[in-house]
Write a structure and sequence with these properties.
The structure is a single chain. By secondary structure, this protein is of the alpha/beta class. It is built from 10 helices and 16 strands. Strands 3, 5, 6, 7, 8, 15 and 16 form a 7-stranded mixed beta sheet that branches. Strands 11-10-9-12-13-14 form a 6-stranded parallel beta sheet, with helices on both faces. A 3-stranded antiparallel beta sheet has the order 2-1-4, with no helix packed on it.
């Protein structure tokens, strides 16, 4: 089978196609004929060994998101049958409950080979069925960005109808958070540097948009839009570059879900605001299989469709990564295997 892997030395220049033997499923394992994979920001970091010594030794198959069809099952498999369309989960050991060091110790495309292969074998417990109405490209986007947004808003945040949510930007996690919050009856405010993107966000259900270039003190505008109260939940993807304003934009007793550090990783916000206003600053990294299953049920019930910006062929992996790096995409980037 053909795979796309980092080989030889850790470098983006060493991301190359290669041939490997076809994998065979063992007891309670399934083999997936992979159809489409999707990119995440972490895929720009992995070829540089950005997660350190914990990562698998080279060669390492790239990417952590994808969807495939079960084409073989090992002895004892009960959760799936040949022909089922499923996604492997990002953290194979995180079945349900809160995270711990064991559940987060293995992830696809980092400590384990990833999804950008013509076939892959996973434990049946480390896969989830996908909503039938989704295309392969839409389904491939679910395991990381979508589950992260769901875990932040619903599992940890306990989002309720009538809540107000602020979403930073129009990347993958942010757009999923927008769609989920709207779907579940919350009011959504979106920030972006582009008026055109804000209009597209409104078409997805955003109730208000703030251009943080023309309105750099955007936390004041957030409080105005929330009647002076602040938002109940805030999806924080900027890190140190935006956290200070996020802490001013969230209500007393509200939650800031720290998911990304695109604008810096150093803590520069006023911790006094966290303490005196009883703000919950919650780190989020992915979610469990139970999160995926609950999310997939909600997506199916509401007919929600993920936003896919562009679908490349797998041989265009480096071109797709360049688009991801540029930040010009609106939604997710996918690759046909």
């Amino acid at each position: 089978m053909r795979v796309w892997q980092v080989e030889g030395q850790w470098s983006m220049d060493n991301v190359k196609p290669a041939l490997r033997p076809d994998p065979q499923p063992g007891p309670r394992q399934i083999r997936l004929a992979m159809r489409v994979c999707a990119l995440n920001y972490r895929d720009l970091v992995v070829p540089l060994r950005g997660y350190g010594a914990r990562m698998k030794e080279l060669p390492l198959v790239m990417l952590c998101d994808g969807v495939g069809v079960v084409d073989a099952v090992g002895p004892g498999v009960t959760r799936f049958a040949v022909g089922d369309r499923v996604c492997p989960t990002l953290f194979p050991r995180w079945i349900d409950g809160p995270p711990d060091s064991t559940k987060l110790s293995l992830s696809l495309g980092s400590e384990l080979d990833g999804t950008l292969a013509e076939a892959m074998v996973v434990d049946e417990d480390a896969a989830c069925a996908v909503p039938a109405h989704l295309t392969d490209a839409e389904a491939a986007t679910l395991p990381t960005a979508a589950v992260t947004a769901w875990h932040a808003l619903v599992t940890e945040g306990r989002l309720a109808p009538g809540d107000t949510v602020l979403v930073q930007g129009c990347g993958g996690v942010s757009l999923f958070a927008l769609q989920f919050a709207h779907m579940l009856g919350a009011r959504v405010i979106v920030t972006s540097s582009s008026d055109e993107r804000l209009e597209r966000a409104r078409a997805l259900g955003a109730d208000a948009g703030i251009n943080y270039v023309s309105d750099p003190d955007w936390s004041k505008r957030v409080r105005e839009l929330s009647g002076g109260r602040g938002v109940d939940q805030l999806i924080e993807v900027g890190g140190s570059g935006t956290l200070a304003q996020s802490l001013r934009a969230v209500r007393t007793g509200g939650t800031v879900s720290l998911i990304g550090v695109l604008a810096g990783a150093e803590l520069t916000g006023s911790l006094g605001l966290v303490v005196t206003r009883h703000v919950r600053l919650q780190g989020i990294t992915g979610g469990s299989r139970a999160d995926f299953e609950a999310m997939a049920a909600a997506i199916a019930a509401h007919g929600m469709r993920p936003v896919v910006d562009r679908v490349f062929d797998s041989g265009q992996l480096l071109e797709a990564l360049a688009l991801l790096r540029s930040g010009r995409q609106f939604g997710k980037i996918a690759l046909r295997v």
